[in-house]
Each structure stands twice: as C-alpha cells, then as structure tokens.
Write a structure and sequence with these properties.
Elements (H helix, E strand, L loop, with lengths): L11 E3 L5 E3 L3 E2 L8 H14 L3 E3 L7 H13 L9 E6 L7 H12 L4 E6 L25 H17 L2 E7 L3 H7 L9 E5 L7 H9 L3 E5 L23 H9 L4 H12 L2 E2 L6 H10 L7 H8 L36 H13 L10
Parallel strand pairs: 3-4, 4-5, 5-6, 6-7, 7-8, 8-9, 9-10
Antiparallel strand pairs: 1-2
Helix pairs in contact: 1-2, 2-3, 7-8
C-alpha cells in the first residue's frame, strides 16, 4: 500500500444541506482506454490511501467490479459505508426508468444507498459505448424542460424512498438551469461541469455558487487520456502551457497538481482519475499542503481558452447545426422548429441502419 493520507486532513466542502463532504474525489471513467479491472484495482488502492469520495456512473461499465472492491473494504474493516461518499449517475437511456437504474447501481456497487445521484446529461440522447465522433442516434432530441423535470421528479422520489441522499445535475447550462430550478421540490446539491484552467466556465461557475450548488469539476487535468472521439486538433493541453509549468516548478510538483490546487481553491471539488498509485496519492495529498498564491491563482485565471474537451457531438439531434447547439452559447436553449425537426428525423430514421451507434 502507498502512503496513507489521513482523511481528517483532506479539505471538506459544506453543501446546501449543511453537510460537509470530501473536497476531492476519485473519478472512475477509464476513457475507453482502461479496463474495469484496472479501474477497480485503483479504487481499492485509493480507499486504503485515504480517498473517501468516488465518482461512478452506470455507463462506465465497471460498477460491478468497483462494488466488489467496496464490499471487500467494508468486510475487512478498512472503511465503513458511512465514511464513503459514493456518487453515480443515471445514463441517458434510463431517463424514464430512473429507479431501476438507481437500484441496479446500488446492487452493483454493493453500497445500500447512493450519496449523490446525478442526471448524467440533461437529455435522453443515447450513444452506445465506444462509438466514434461521427455516430448519431436518429431518435435524439433537443432539451425539453418537461422531459428533464420528469427525470428529476423521479430522482426526488428516490430521496423520499431513502435510496439516494442527494441529487446532482451535470452538463447543464445557465438557460437550462433558469428553466428548471424554479420547478424543483428538492434542490440539487451539486452540478458536475467540465473544469480545468483552459475551460474555466466562470459565468456558469459563479451562477452555481450564487445558487448554493456545489461545483464538481470533471476533467480537472485537461484529460490528456480522454476518448479518441473527444480529441480535436484545436484542443489545448493545459499542463503544457508555460505558465502552468512555471507555477509547478515554483512548487516543485507536476502541473497536474497545480490544476487540482487551483480547482480546489476556486471552491470546486475536482475528481481526477489515475490507475497509477503514485499519481492518485499525489493528487489527494496536493490539497493538504502548499497552496497556490493569490498571484498564481490570478495568473491561471488568464489561461481561459474556452477549450471545451467534451463537446458532445454524439448527442446531437437531427437538424442541429453542430456541437455548439448543446451548450446554449447564445444565452437561450437551442431547439429546432417542429417542422424541420420532423423532416430531419424522418430522413434519419430511413437511414437508421447506417448508424451503428443506434440501439433499438
């Protein structure tokens, strides 16, 4: 076992329920490059090194293996269930069957209940695992307030049934949030967003803070190992920027740790992923020592490039212009008029067999 970081010294974040939760978690998405066994082995090591938050998802295809790790840790007395903060997500193809998805995740993760249950994406547009960037599902549709709230209401019922403790949302935009927040009975505790030095999303970040919704930052290192479908020639490598290297040298650490310190000091919960023990121990330890200076934080603030890495091409609906439509960049929810949408949809249904990513 690697170095043990006492969970008591790892920073906590106070959320809108009044509870304090871990200020850093371990991601479990293998980016289509790492096997479920490698991910679960890393989770086993991370628990024993002091991690207490884990970010899982049904679509990552490894919850059953991670569940065995959790059970072993509970059975061996390494950690009690109440000491872990376990997060997972309902995948897009289960938006009408949220409780079924939740119960399966609980069974797979062998954890009795879920601490934070996220709606992974705000629409039910499905893509199959491992599909490429050009894959499309002809049944994909633009965001619908009514459909989203139906999914959210199901999550609220899970809180009432004791299956989950907190609701999370993910990959949202300010226009979408403006539309749905007033309709919720139970306020979301957190929102997962892409967050790294070259994708700071300050307006969205500030909006979430103002509404007392905890930011959870995915891809906190700029995700150099993300799936091939999410890699574009114009993407910027955050950790390769001279400013990041300069700050890292001043702290005698890797630029990855500068990313994590920055995220934490902004007020977000970063959820980095690594299967290498040296890396995941360093990630956890970085938040317990040697913070960035105000000057360094200000320097990183200048690195914003609006460099979105998860663009979401595979979720586009027939008739959408391009991936920018997913993110409401003009300040309003992007839709298509019913006539055009129907025409495009009929055309795509005729070509259904050409879309290997579509699942009936």
């Amino acid at each position: 076992m690697g170095e043990f970081i006492d969970p008591a010294i790892v920073p906590k974040m106070k959320v809108n329920t009044g509870e304090e939760i871990p200020g850093i978690g371990m991601g479990t998405f293998g980016s289509d490059r790492v096997s479920p066994e490698e991910v679960s082995n890393a989770v086993a090591g991370a628990i024993r090194c002091g991690y207490r938050m884990f970010d899982c998802a049904a679509c990552y295809g490894n919850e059953d293996q991670i569940g065995k790790v959790f059970k072993d840790a509970f059975d061996e007395g390494v950690v009690e269930r109440k000491e872990l903060y376990i997060m997972t997500k309902v995948w897009n193809d289960m938006h009408r069957r949220v409780e079924e998805s939740c119960r399966k995740s609980i069974a797979d993760l062998q954890c009795d209940y879920i601490d934070m249950f996220f709606i992974h994406w705000p629409f039910p547009n499905y893509h199959a695992p491992g599909c490429d960037v050009d894959s499309r599902n002809p049944d994909s549709k633009p965001f619908s307030v009514e459909e989203f709230m139906d999914t959210y209401r199901q999550c609220e019922s899970l809180v009432e049934k004791g299956l989950i403790r907190h609701i999370g949302i993910s990959n949202m935009t300010i226009p979408k949030l403006d539309a749905v927040l007033p309709l919720m009975k139970i306020k979301p505790v957190a929102c997962e967003i892409e967050l790294h030095p070259c994708m700071q999303q300050k307006e969205l970040f500030d909006y979430l803070v103002a509404h007392d919704i905890q930011v959870v930052g995915y891809m906190p290192l700029g995700s150099p190992q993300r799936p091939e479908r999410d890699i574009m020639p114009e993407d910027v490598a955050d950790m390769e920027l001279p400013e990041m290297k300069e700050i890292a040298a001043a702290h005698n650490c890797h630029p990855a740790l500068v990313c994590l310190k920055w995220s934490h000091q902004l007020g977000a919960i970063p959820i980095p992923f690594s299967v290498r023990e040296k890396n995941y121990v360093s990630n956890l330890k970085s938040l317990t020592e040697d913070p960035l200076t105000d000057e360094e934080m200000a320097k990183i603030a200048t690195l914003e490039r609006n460099n979105r890495l998860v663009k979401g091409h595979v979720f586009l609906w027939p008739g959408a212009k391009d991936w920018h439509d997913l993110w409401d960049e003009d300040g309003k929810i992007v839709t298509v008029d019913n006539g055009n949408y129907s025409a495009f949809r009929l055309n795509h249904i005729k070509k259904r067999r050409n879309f290997f990513c579509y699942i009936d």
